Amino acid sequence: MCACLVACSCGRPAVILTRQAPPTLGGEPGGYERAVVERVIDGDTVEVRITGRVPGEGLGRARIGGSYDVRLVGIDTPESVAPGEPVECFGREASEAAEALLEGREVLLVVDVEEEDSFGRLLRYVYMGAEMANARLVVNGYAHAYRYPPNVRHSALFGALQRHARSHDAGLWAAAGCAS
User: What is the 3-class SS of the chain, one letter each residue?
Assistant: First the structure.
């Protein structure tokens, strides 16, 4: 079964997130934060409000009720909001894809090794049910796989999903897109 998520984008091609990533929540170490995505900052960063916690090994230290910027670990998207920098090729589309996928949604946040990055953003795998949003963005060509040692639990999966996206000319890998 293939779930379809399509969003219009003001005269540009529609954001299409039809390829699902494999369910991986069951393989996580257990423990996570529950959150609501309040806004999408760009393709790989969102702002969330923590609404609950489920104890376990993978649980982070964010507080219930707090608002946090979350960096989707293991992926990278073209920049769309870097101060003083132009919007990169496919940056708007990546941001729109993240927005279509996550804005307003209840999600689960799972830590890998490090809690935060050097900018104070939480580093998390973001789950919509059993499917990871980070992976959904990669398999549909809206994000690159990007290793963030020591946070590499899903690096092999992201690499495989990126190869799939490239071989299917998805998103930024399309012949008329940025990769050409």
Answer: CCCCCEEEECCEEEEECCCCCCCCHHHCCCCEEEEEEEEEEECCEEEEEEEEEECCCCCCCCCCCCEEEEEECCEECCCCCCCCCCCCCCHHHHHHHHHHHHCCCEEEEECCCCCECCCCCEEEEEEECCEEHHHHHHHCCCCEECCECCECCCHHHHHHHHHHHHHCCCHHHCCCCCCC
